[in-house]
TrEMBL record:
<feature type="transmembrane region" description="Helical">
    <location>
        <begin position="377"/>
        <end position="400"/>
    </location>
</feature>
<feature type="transmembrane region" description="Helical">
    <location>
        <begin position="136"/>
        <end position="154"/>
    </location>
</feature>
<feature type="transmembrane region" description="Helical">
    <location>
        <begin position="420"/>
        <end position="437"/>
    </location>
</feature>
<keyword id="KW-1133">Transmembrane helix</keyword>
<keyword id="KW-0813">Transport</keyword>
<feature type="transmembrane region" description="Helical">
    <location>
        <begin position="30"/>
        <end position="50"/>
    </location>
</feature>
<keyword id="KW-0812">Transmembrane</keyword>
<keyword id="KW-1003">Cell membrane</keyword>
<feature type="transmembrane region" description="Helical">
    <location>
        <begin position="218"/>
        <end position="242"/>
    </location>
</feature>
<feature type="transmembrane region" description="Helical">
    <location>
        <begin position="254"/>
        <end position="278"/>
    </location>
</feature>
<protein>
    <submittedName>
        <fullName>Gluconate transporter</fullName>
    </submittedName>
</protein>
<feature type="transmembrane region" description="Helical">
    <location>
        <begin position="298"/>
        <end position="316"/>
    </location>
</feature>
<feature type="transmembrane region" description="Helical">
    <location>
        <begin position="174"/>
        <end position="197"/>
    </location>
</feature>
<feature type="transmembrane region" description="Helical">
    <location>
        <begin position="336"/>
        <end position="365"/>
    </location>
</feature>
<feature type="transmembrane region" description="Helical">
    <location>
        <begin position="96"/>
        <end position="129"/>
    </location>
</feature>
<feature type="transmembrane region" description="Helical">
    <location>
        <begin position="57"/>
        <end position="76"/>
    </location>
</feature>
<comment type="similarity">
    <text>Belongs to the GntP permease family.</text>
</comment>
Amino acid sequence: MTILFVLLSILLLVLLIVWAKLNPFLAFLITSIVAGLLLGIPPEQVAVSVQQGMGSLLGDLVIIITMGAMLGKLVAESGAAQRIADFLMRVFGKKYIHWAMMVTGLVVGIPLFYNVGFVLLVPLVFTVAHQYKLSAVYVGIPLLAALSVTHGFLPPHPSPAALVAQFDANMGMTLLYGMMVAIPTILVAGPWFARYLKNIPASPLKSFRASSKPEEDLPGTWNSFLSALLPVVLLVGTTLLLMQTDEGSTLYGYVKFIADPGMVMLFSLLVATFTLGLHQGAKMNHLMDIYVDSVKDVAMIILIVAGAGALKQVLLDSGVSQVIADGLEGWNVHPLVLAWTITAVIRVCVGSATVAGLTTAGIIGPLIEGAGVDPNLVVLAIGAGSLMFSHFNDAGFWMYKEFFNVSIKDTIRSWSVMETIVAVVGLAGVMVLDWIVG
């Protein structure tokens, strides 16, 4: 009966989001309460579990997500993203313009949340496609593949950052492994796959073409790159430094402090506030307004993550997570493949990559703990599964269709297939890494 109640709870979550069109945060709260009662948690303890789960997960993530949103918004508003894109297009030229778009999506997508990156960079795609008389789909898919991969695989994006916290993984190591998997995945789902999409008709509206800032108003090229990528440099650099430092030394404690993801994001934001803001002539009041607006963009994401933490805690407190883990132990399936499969199924049913990833984490947590699997690779396996086959229940599907003004059929054969390639190639990359580091 325990497994049945869990399945009914997951079904309830799917129905509330897909059929009832309920906000995922509310859906998570309702599902957590119902699951707690069904699984035998005393009624007076259900609310305690919900609150504890929300608080414990958000405690690790609020700084990372909000600072990441602020940095991403500043990169966009300052013109740094435009400078990066312009530089890459000059380097690659018309013949390799889709490679320029891919690198733009990867570089700009690391600090920018997906929806912000989409709205910011897709008009640039239309402008480039119009200028060079190329298919907008052919030009855009490599960029969108890069944005999608960074969203699903790389901290400080909400889902991978939350998964790092849930599995007690290392943020810097996850980012390092994530880049190893992300680059080949983007190459296959982006430039390689785009070659087969040159003839898809797309007629984006003129109003969606990028409105560029004047050249003299843009920050410098190196300033733009360094400010946008500073969190990556610090996370990877301090992680590698920690591996070479004696744990008993005084230096280790300072490096550990600097390596904390929250401290990395705070330092990166303070540096960017000067390099992309004050140094460019922006007023402090204007910069603070940008930061306030950025938090509004991710407020609901934070709540959804909190809701997922509530469901996870209910499953833990009821003991059902261990029951599921015990039941799955007999399956002759690699834990990473199992994590990917569960996530992919929930993603196809629910449509949200974040919901799919965090729901899976709550289900398989105990199994992973005793399986001897690298938790950093678990984060990436779930991240890959969370991008599986985007279709009608995913907002990204409709954003792509409407912005690019393509048919449903062409949306599926370009966007949906691209997302599926990302999921499958991403899993293959994770399994190769597991074989190497295992």
